[in-house]
TrEMBL record:
Belongs to the Nth/MutY family. Its EC number is 4.2.99.18. It comes from the Bacteria. It comes from Dissulfurirhabdus thermomarina. Binds 1 [4Fe-4S] cluster. CDD domains: ENDO3c. DNA repair enzyme that has both DNA N-glycosylase activity and AP-lyase activity. The DNA N-glycosylase activity releases various damaged pyrimidines from DNA by cleaving the N-glycosidic bond, leaving an AP (apurinic/apyrimidinic) site. The AP-lyase activity cleaves the phosphodiester bond 3' to the AP site by a beta-elimination, leaving a 3'-terminal unsaturated sugar and a product with a terminal 5'-phosphate. The keyword Lyase applies. Pfam families: HHH (PF00633), HhH-GPD (PF00730). This is Endonuclease III. The gene is nth. Its cofactor is [4Fe-4S] cluster.
Length: 219
C-alpha cells in the first residue's frame, strides 16, 4: 500500500519527536530492578497501578525468598500476599504471580518464554507486560508498551487519538520504525515524569513544545 502525503508527514513529525526525546533522555531505560527474566515479569505484574519506586522497595525481599519460578510456584500464597501487599491489589497480584510461575514451570521448563503468544497465555499478563518482557529480557520488539505516561503523551503529542492501549499501540507502531518500538516507551515515560506531567506539565521547558499540538499547553 502506497504511503499517502499525510502519512509521510505524520511519520516525519514522529521522527522529529523521537530525535528530540533521544537527545533529552539518552539514558532512558526501564526503572524496575530485576536480575532474571522471571523477576522482571513479576516486577512488571506488580507495577500495575503502582509506582516503580514502590515495586523496587518490595521485590528485594520477595526475590530473596522466592527467586525463581519453581520457588514461587511452591510458595505459600499468604506469604506472597504479605510481601506484595504494599503494591496494592495484592491478593489478585499474588494469585497471578503464582499461577504464572506454575504455568512457566509446567509448560516452559521454568524459563520465561520469549514468544508473545506464550506470554499472553500467562495469568496477569497483557500486551504491555509482554512487550516489556520481550524487549528487556529477550531482546525482541513486537510492539510498544503503553502505560499511563505513554497513553497521555501519545494523546497530547497528537500521535494517537485513541484511548484504548491496544489501539494506541497500533498507531505508534505505524508511526515509528520497529527498531525504536522498545526504547520509545521509556523515552515517553521519562518525558512524562520529568516534564509532561499529568498535572501541571512544565510546558515552557519542554523540548517538544514546537512539535506539540496540545491545546492546553501552559505558558
Amino acid at each position: 500500500m502506497a504511503t499517502t502525503p499525510a502519512k509521510a508527514a505524520a511519520r516525519e513529525r514522529a521522527a522529529r519527536i523521537l530525535s528530540a526525546l533521544e537527545a533529552a533522555y539518552p539514558g532512558a531505560r526501564i526503572a524496575l530492578r530485576s536480575e532474571t527474566p522471571f523477576q522482571l515479569l513479576v516486577a512488571v505484574i506488580l507495577s500495575a497501578q503502582c509506582t516503580d519506586e514502590r515495586v523496587n522497595q518490595v521485590t528485594p525481599e520477595l526475590f530473596r525468598r522466592f527467586p525463581d519460578a519453581a520457588a514461587m510456584a511452591e510458595a505459600p500464597l499468604e506469604e506472597i500476599e504479605a510481601l506484595v501487599r504494599p503494591t496494592g491489589f495484592f491478593r489478585n497480584k499474588a494469585r497471578n504471580i503464582q499461577a504464572a510461575a506454575r504455568r512457566i514451570v509446567e509448560r516452559h521448563g521454568g524459563e520465561v518464554p520469549c514468544r508473545m503468544e506464550d506470554l499472553l497465555a500467562l495469568p496477569g499478563v497483557a500486551r504491555k507486560t509482554a512487550n516489556i518482557v520481550l524487549y528487556n529480557a529477550c531482546g525482541r520488539a513486537e510492539g510498544v508498551a503503553v502505560d499511563t505516561h505513554v497513553k497521555r503523551l501519545a494523546g497530547r503529542l497528537g500521535l494517537s487519538a485513541e484511548t484504548r492501549p491496544d489501539r494506541i499501540e497500533r498507531d505508534l507502531m505505524a508511526l515509528f520504525p520497529k527498531e525504536k518500538w522498545g526504547p520509545l516507551s521509556y523515552l515517553l515515560i521519562e518525558h512524562g515524569r520529568a516534564v509532561c506531567r499529568a498535572r501541571r506539565p512544565l510546558c515552557p521547558r519542554c523540548p517538544l513544545r514546537p512539535l506539540c499540538p496540545w491545546p492546553e499547553k501552559t505558558a
